[in-house]
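Researcher: For the record, we're logging two predictions in this thread. I'll number them. Prediction 1 follows.
Model: Prediction 1, sequence and structure:
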Amino acid sequence: MMDLEKHIKQKPSDFVVEEVIPFSPRKDGQFQLFLLKKSSLSTLQVVRFLSKLLKIKPSDIGFAGLKDRFAVTTQYITVPSDVNIPDKLCFINKGGKWLKAESIDFGREQGFCMERVGFTDQKLQLGDNSGNRFVIKIRNIHKEQRKIFYHNLEIVKKYGCANYFGEQRFGSVKGRNDFIFLYLLKGDVEKALKTYFSIKGSLKHWGNWELFYRDLRGNLEDYEKDLILGLKRGLSFEKAIRILPKNVRLMFNFAFQSFLWNEYLRRYIESKYPFKRVNFIHSWKLSFYIEVYDIEYLKNLEIPYTGREYSVNDKLFKEIIREIIDKFGIKEKDFGKEVAGIKVLTDGLRKAVFFPQDFKIVGKTKDSITVSFFLPAGSYATILLRNLLS
C-alpha cells in the first residue's frame, strides 16, 4: 500500500504553499496586512511568538488558514493598526530560541519573515482565503507508480477528488479512536488531559506535578507549562483545561467532527460507486471513487457536519449520518453543548468533491515528479496526492 510520507516533504522546500486572498490591500484601514513566509513552523507557532513579541493577545492576530508546518508557506496575517511593527520582520528559531535576522534561507532554516503589504478594515478570519497554490515535489516514484499516477490524474480531471479532511486536522488524535473530544464530552477531563499530554511525552509522574513538569518541560508550549503549574497550585482539571488557548480546545472538537465527516463521505462512496480503499493515518481508511455516473449531482453535493441545522435531502446520506453518530454514542443533547468553554458539535456544510485547477507537471526526473496546482479553500493537497499515488 502507498505510504505518502516516503514521497513528499523530504525537505520543507518540496512542499510550497502560497495563499490567495479574494481582495487587494488598501492604503489605510483598521488592520495592517502582512505577507508571512515561513519554513518548518506552524502558523500557530508564529502567532504565539508574535503575540509575545508585540505584547498583544494571540486572538488579535488574524489569519485565514493554518498552513503546513514541514513546508515553505506564504500566507496573510492581520494585526491591529495601532500596534507598532516594522515594515519587515524576520526571525530564525534555533533550538527553541528566536533570533532576529535580516533574511532567511527558507530551504535550510526554521523561521519566518513578514512584510507589510497594506491595510484592510477587516481582521482575517479562518476561511477568508480563496484557496492555495501548491508546488510539490513527489519523490521515490518508480515506473509502475508513475503509470498509476497518470491514470489517476485522468480520473481526477474528469470526476474531481473526494474532499476529505487531511491529516493536519488530526494532530490532537494519538490513536485510532482516542479522541480527546470524546473524553471531554463524557466529562472525563482528567483522561482528556492525560491523552493530550501523552503526545508530549511520558505520563510516568502524572499527579506529581513538579516531577511531571520537569519530565516534559523541554517539549511544552508556555500555555502548557502554565496549565501544569496551575494543577500544582491545586486547580481542578475542569479549570486547568481552560488555560489551553481557545483555538487549541476548538481543535479537539474539529478533529472529531472532521473524522465523522470523513466517515460519512467514505461510506457514501463505498455505497454508490466503484472505489479503491487507501491507507490513512491511525489505521483509518479513505475510499476514492474510480468512476461516477452522476457527476453533476456529486460535484454540487454539500454534506453537513451533523444534519441538525442543515437538512439532508439525500436519503442514503441521511441514513449514513444517523448510523455513524449513533455508533459513537452522540445524543441529541450533545449538539451545540458547551464543553471546556467551547460550543461543540455545531453544524455546517462542506462540498463532497473538489477539482484541482491549473494542474501542471512542472518538473520530472528519473524518480520524481514536480506538480503545481490551485485548490479552493479548505481542500487538502495531501488528500489529492493520496488519491493520485494509490
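Researcher: Logged. Prediction 2.
Model: Prediction 2, sequence and structure:
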Amino acid sequence: MSYTLTRPRSEQRPDTGFVPAETLAQLTELLERRRTGYSMEGPFYTDPGIFKADMEGIFGKHWIFTASIAEIPEPGDYVTLDFGPYALIVLRTDDGGVNVLHNICRHRGARVLTESRGSTGNMVCGYHSWTYAEDGTLIHASTAPGEKLDKECFALKRAQVRIVAGLVFTCLAEEPPEDFDEVIPLIEPYLAPHDISQTKVAYQQNIIEEGNWKLVMENNRECYHCDGHPELACSLFPTWGLSDGLIPPHLEEVWARNVEAKIQLEERCDRYGLHHEVIEQLDTRIAGFRISRESLDGAGESFSATGRRLSKKLLGSLRDFRLGRCSLHLQPNSWFHFLSDHIVTFAAIPINEHQTLVRTTWLVADDAVEGVDYDLDELTHVWKQTNLQDKAFVEMCQLGAASPAYEQGPYMDSEYQVEAFVNWYTQRMREHIA
C-alpha cells in the first residue's frame, strides 16, 4: 500500500496554544483598571495564565532581540534560544545572512539542535535523522518502500528576521508590526560607527533571575535605585533620568559634572559627525524605543572605576575613546551600551511567570587580544556586579508582588521610563485581546 503524507500549508503557522477564557476575562479587567503612574497589580507578575498571554501577545507578535552577528560570525554558526513555549535556532547562512527557525522537528517535535550554540552544516534531528537545509527545507527523511513523503510540506517553520547594525531581531508573527522598519533607519546611524561586524564575543553571562520578565524590564528602565550600584556609579552618572528641578541635594555636584560632560561630549560628537540627539518613542509607537549618546563620568571613556578605556582597540570607524556611551532601549526585551572600546548587549528572556534569563554579552574589536589589549575581569567587572545587584532587586520585588499585602505604588518622576514601558505593555495587550 502506498500513501503520501501531506499537511495543508495553512497548518505551518506556529501555534502558541490557548489562553483560557477566564484568564482573558481577568486580564481584560486588570488592563481596564490600570492606574496611570502606579505599578501594576500583583497578578501581572505572578499569574501563569497572564504569563502565557504575554507570550502570545508580546513575544509571539513583536520584534525581539535574539543575538548579534558577532555571536554567529561564520556560515553554519548558530545559537539556540528558548523563551516561554518557544524554541528558536538563529543560524548564519552561507551568504552572510541570518535565518531564524523554530527548533521543532516536523516529524514528532523533537529539538533539532540541542546545544546552546555551535556550528552545523545541514541540521540533523537526533531522533529519527530528519535532515534540514539552512533555510529549513526538509532534504532527507527515511521512508519504507512504497511510502512517499511530500518534503515541501514539512520544512522547519521560519520566523521573520531583521538585522539592524549587526543586531539580530526576530518576530514570530506572520504579519509583524510594520513600524519596526521605520525605526531601523532612525537607530542605525547611531550604531553603525561601532561596526559589530568587526567585533567578537569576549564573554557572555547568563543569569536566571527569580522574577517576572516585566520586573526585569522595569528595573532596567530607571536609575532611582542606582545608589545600589556603587561600581556602575563610578562611570554612569546616577542622575540619569533626572532633569533641572529634580536634583536632590546630595547629587547636585554630580549633576554639575554631568552637565559639563554633556556639553563636551556633544562638541566632540559634532566634530566627528556622530549622532547624539535623544530620540524617545517608548510608548508612542508599536516598536517602542529610545536612543541617545550620553556622557560618562571620570575620563568619560568606558565602564570602569576611573571611566577610562577597558580595551586598547577602538571599534569600527571611531577616532576617539572619549565618546561616552550610545544607549539603546527597545521594547519589549533588550537594551544596549555601545562604547568606543566595547559593546554590551542585554536580553531579557522569559522562562516562566517567575523566572527570567538575563543574557549579557561583551563584544570587543575582533583584533583585540585578551591579556594584551584588554583584561577580561576588568572588562566585565562593572556589569557583572551590577547584574548581581539588579538580580537581588528584581527578586525582592517578585516576593513582594506575590504577597496578599502588596498594593500598587506610585512611580517617581525619575521613573518615567518605567511608566512608559508599562503603558506600552498595556496598549499592546489590549490590542492582543481585542
